[in-house]
Amino acid sequence: MLTSVLSFTPEMAEKVTEYCTKSSTDVSGQMNELWDWTVGEFEDADKMSSPLQGSTMKFLAGLLKPKRILEIGCFTGYSALAWYESTKHVNAEIITLELDPKMIAASRRTFEKYGLNDRVKMIEGDALQSLKKLTGTFDLIFVDANKDGYEAYVKSILDQKLLSPTGLIMADNIFARGMTISTDSNPLLPEKTRAYWTANGKALRDFNAFCKHDGRIDTVLLPVYDGLTLIKWKTE
Prior knowledge:
This protein is an alpha/beta fold. It has helices at residues 10-23, 29-41, 51-64, 78-86, 101-113, 127-132, 150-159, 191-213, and strands spanning 68-72, 93-98, 120-124, 138-143, 163-172, 217-222, 228-233. A seven-stranded mixed β-sheet has the order 3-2-1-4-5-7-6, sandwiched between helices.
């Protein structure tokens, strides 16, 4: 029986990604412009969501019609721009948490350049502390920050009931470039980043175990992008 994950060489995977991107609804010119700028400005731009992920975000937001969105980790504001563009019809409030001063500056540039400040609010500082100060519920929560914090972030979200009854949590980069699966799974990973992603893989294995065994939630880990976990309240 065919497995859920097709085996591609790196070259074929690149072609498949390109084909999927071209076959999906295009992201906006603004999102493409921001993506190109980020790639040109930041050495670690590979941490940013891909254009295909951007299409996925906009598709899901259009389907879910969230009134409030929370994201943990903003980077240069690419995902915030995707949420903003795809929720104009519901005038959604978007709150984004960021700690890194460099990324705070880059995100604020994005918010100003593309006119997002009317609905996007950035909270600077430690995400776990920021979460404790939030009130109300969110219909869509995107977790894409330091991987060793994922378990604490999601646990805090659940404990505080920040996720709405029909809401969705999306946690990105769950494969940690393959290191979550096995430290031998990605021989092409650059040596200068191997230790970083290996540590992330260990943290995310713990996070996956937490999600699997927390009786409050249903969760599914999808083999797309660098691993994407979807979480919702358990259906009674």
